[in-house]
Amino acid sequence: MRDSGTYDPRFAAVRDAFDRNFAERGEVGASVCVTLEGETVVDLWDGIADPGSARAWERDTIGVIWSCTKGATALCAHVLVARGELELDAPVASYWPEFAKNGKDAITVRMVLAHQAGLPAFTEPIPENGYCDWELIVSRLAEQAPLWAPGTRHGYHALTYGHLVGEVVRRVSGRSLGTFFREEVAEPLNLDLWIGLPEEHEPRVAPTIPAPFPEPGDVIPTFYRVAMTDPDSVGALVLMNSGLVFAPGWIDTRGAHAAELPAFGGIGNARALAGMYRPLALGGAVDGVQIIDRGELVEMGAVASATSVDATMLVPTRWSLGFVKSVDNSAREPGDRDGVILAEEAFGHVGMGGSIGFADPHARMSFGYTMNRQGMTTGLDERAQSLIDAAYIALGYRRSPRGGSWYPTSR
Question: Residues 91-122, buried b or exposed e (16+ Cβ, 10 A)?
């Protein structure tokens, strides 16, 4: 263990959990970062970035953060809402007229942000590399009929979310989602976080190590089990009609890195994720940079949709407008017990395989964790959750022995 980076002694338990991830939980390469009151209190990285070359994970190593990208994409929409340029309850078609086809004329921006639009997957085949073709995907979204009555339920829009929100941002701002994020968020905050990676940064990327394919008898999440056995399920449409997104190695091609894939293709590290959420933990501004106003911050953190059976993931999920909220699934059947256990005020996003970034405005804390080896989970596995738990314990938070979210002991 090189134990690279720094940490405040108050957060030594985060360092210890990070070390245990390598010693006991199969971590290969990873980074974790925590800020408190705007100051960095944990910034650690370790392990191997690329097992093929034995390249070490360094301070500036970056990698695909998968659906953590959705947090950045949702933030772009909220920036426009805060400026009065985008209305949450306006029909998407008022900004994107072609979208009104096939019963989608009443779908609002709010429904899209809360995964209620009924467009989690396509029913018509997507060609190889289709998600790298922006115009193809947005034209397909304009034609696609909802899989359920919009606004009546929610189901995770795993691949389509980025193009849905991104096209609204493009129509309103005149800029692509990746450009808008870079100019309005990443550059002002000096973030090493990209939606569309410039080629000069390719040498720093840690390739993704997919979770091993399950062996007979392995307990796996219901989402994957149903997707592999029911070709008509939403999960099957997501996984099997992705244009090779989930094919081994596809996400690590130069074409995928260069494309703007704002649902799942962002590239960065823990420091970048904690840095993006840092102003959101502090009322919307940090170091003189105003990203969002306090009023919009309330919308970003408030629960907008919750269900005991997500129409896509088939487990309980809770959402604000574009962000994951704390959900404890530990009492469910084996395979479905991995939730996202935060404090109730916190909001952020997980990435496939177990990465996460979030802000906690009450604790005034932001958090980021990225890694290259994915876990077979629909939420967080023990690696990320142990780091989050250690951070909250360091702040004096507790959880009920019956489960649930973290809460401050001063309550």
Answer: bbbebbeebbeeebeebbbbbbbbbbbbbbbb
